[in-house]
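Exam review. A common question shows you a sequence with its structure tokens and asks you to describe the fold in words. Practice with the pair below. Do the first one on your own.
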Amino acid sequence: MGRTALMDVDEGDDPGLPYETQDGPPSNPLEGVALTVSWDGTAGEATEWPVCEPGGSYSRPHKVYCDRYFTCQNGQPYLGQCLDGYGFVLFKGCKLLHQVTCEKGKRLQAPKGRGVCERLFGIYPDPKNCNRFYKCDNGTAVPDSCPRSLIFDNNKKVCRRPTDEEIFQCERPTEASTLMVPLQPADSMKPVLFKCPIHNILEFGDHSRHPYPGNCHFFIMCLRDGTMKVGSCEPTTAYNPVTSNCDSISKVPNCT
């Protein structure tokens, strides 16, 4: 009997669009889902396929992989593969790995990320600064930071107060900070040295905005607590230093 496998979403597909029928309420969109293609089950490693009950639709976890799952639809089994950085949670679908309990001995697909992104999707620490972390979206690393006096906890993926030992282990920049921003194509990163003004006027209530050196599609936000974040404009728009907002590219000099 032929079977159907789920493969990773191709580049350019919106992972928020596909749906999967599951044991919970029907027609719930999943994070990190995959698209269906036909497969006869003769290639690749051996898979222990479940016996599906006739009629109805429901999902089952894979016995070997935390990021694979089976869907039974009208007696037909389907094999699912979450995107790199996601794992399967019964009733909830594919969720980021830090939200998944992967039992000891179970496996994950080989990582496809590079650089600070260990996998294509996820939240990862800055190896050079305890206060910073990266949000990886399909391999593109977007920098972020914890509020001042807090550090990033890579195990729980939260910002928290450091222990006395961690205070001595973590070095924080005292004057200028090095931020990272994706270039085009988005598989490389460019370091930029930037220092927020000493007398910073918070024209947006809790932050001020400044041009990102060398890239008109991004801007730097200096926050009230002294930390910085990088903001980005929507496609076809760019940061206008005159208005301190994203504007049509045609209105921003020397921006393409």
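Now try the second one, then compare your answer with the model answer below.
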Amino acid sequence: MKSTDIQKIVETKYENGDDPTKIFRDLAGAVSLPTIKLWIKMINTTGSITLSSPPDCPRTIRTNAAIVKVKNCLSRKKRASTQKLAKDMKISRTSVQRILGEDLGCKPYKKTKQPKLTNLQKKLGGLNEKFFDLDGIYNSQNDRVWTINREEVDRKGGFHEKTKYPGKAMVWLGACAEGLTTPIILENRTMDTEVYINEVLPIALESGDRMLGSDWTYQQDGARTHTHLLTQEWCAENFPDFISKESWSPNSPDLCPLDYSLWNELGQCMNWNRMTTKATLIEEIKRSVAKVDNKNNFISVLDFTIRLRIIKKMEKTIFIT
């Protein structure tokens, strides 16, 4: 029973002639006798039970300063997730979400996909598509724009433009506790077993020996080129040690530092506004590999042992995806 319901019962019984003790007994201890006497005193004085609300406790987390800081983040060109914002402000993610939702009246909106037009296409009509720039990174699951309404999202550039056939290049990259390996970029080709054995694995071996010495383990995911018989034979003959296809989960994106962390780190280091052709894309990839924070790389590799409890803990492991 709610407190307001009990107050109404006390008020009704008192008006019917019951004394405080009888009311207390009838309520079977639902409220104390001193409280009943206090309420009856209020009835005699004011005609009803009027309880004053306790004063609001001072805010310690959702302060005006915190609200202003979150509001300023919304106006920045480079957006941050609520998780990163909470980490920077040293408050919980729930507090950040309450500031956005309750204090600023914002809601999370997904970006709207739309065809991408070049400057030339915007000025002329009736032309076939000719793409002059490349698409950036967009995570449709996590990328949100916090605003008050959908119209505000559009004004703040809440679009991720997609070209129909964007220029792209395949990148091979390895990671270990000492840093990232030399990237291999395939401009107009895809990765097959022959390319993997002749061009990628020798670089992986050279990078591993240079960064880790002569005692390290090579790990690769379950892609067909990685599990091919010739690939497995090459790895067994040349690497100090490697995890065979029988010992590795075939679908394991959450177990490789590049998949669960470092590809995103590389993407954040790239200046997507500078890339207008495939050549500038490749140049930016090479430049940005050196900019990946070694601390984040090291933490990602350490996290491997937490994610992969079924495989023996290794001190030196190099990864490829």
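Model answer, second protein: The two ends are 61 Å apart (CA to CA). The longest helix spans residues 193-212. Full marks require stating both points clearly.
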